[in-house]
Amino acid sequence: ATFTEVPKDVTVREGDDIEMPCAFRASGSTSYSLEIQWWYLKEPARELAHELAISVPGSRSKAAPRLCPLLQTVRVQGNDISHRLRLSGVRRQDEGVYECRVADYSDDETQEHKAQALLRVLSRFAPPDVQAAEAVSHIQ
């Protein structure tokens, strides 16, 4: 079982439309029940894992749902599954890590596979080097 297409890190300008592909093929000839879920992690996984680990044991962390909203779910019967996450008119607050999770429900034990990509969103009007120069002048 393997990903045949994974989302890639991308940098876009505010207002642009993007697509993130995710495709997976299960091994063997058996018919599988496969599910793709797209999650928005906001921060890279290591920071997220740390943040969730420090929440109080036994209580539901209020931060977890906000940090990890489930965006879309697609389920199929068969050996192949693919889905493109489409984001229209991206905004600065859309920046972050998007994760494609594929769950394979065919065995007694569910297998989960993950692929991540980082979306960076630049200001529509200022070129990136001008923003950096402004940041430096504020620091001085």
UniProtKB/TrEMBL annotation:
SMART domains hit by this protein: IG
UniProt GO cellular component terms: membrane
Membrane-crossing residue ranges in chain numbering: none
Keyword Zinc appears in the UniProt entry: no
Keywords per UniProt: Disulfide bond, Immunoglobulin domain, Membrane, Signal, Transmembrane, Transmembrane helix
Subcellular location(s) per record: Membrane
Pfam families for the chain: V-set (PF07686)
Membrane topology designation: Single-pass type I membrane protein
Ig-like domain boundaries: 1-116
UniProt xrefs under SUPFAM superfamilies: Immunoglobulin
Main subcellular localisation: membrane
UniProt keyword 4Fe-4S present: no
UniProt xrefs under PANTHER family: V-SET AND TRANSMEMBRANE DOMAIN-CONTAINING PROTEIN, V-SET AND TRANSMEMBRANE DOMAIN-CONTAINING PROTEIN 2B
Entry protein name: V-set and transmembrane domain-containing protein 2B
Organism, as annotated: Casuarius casuarius
Gene that encodes it: Vstm2b
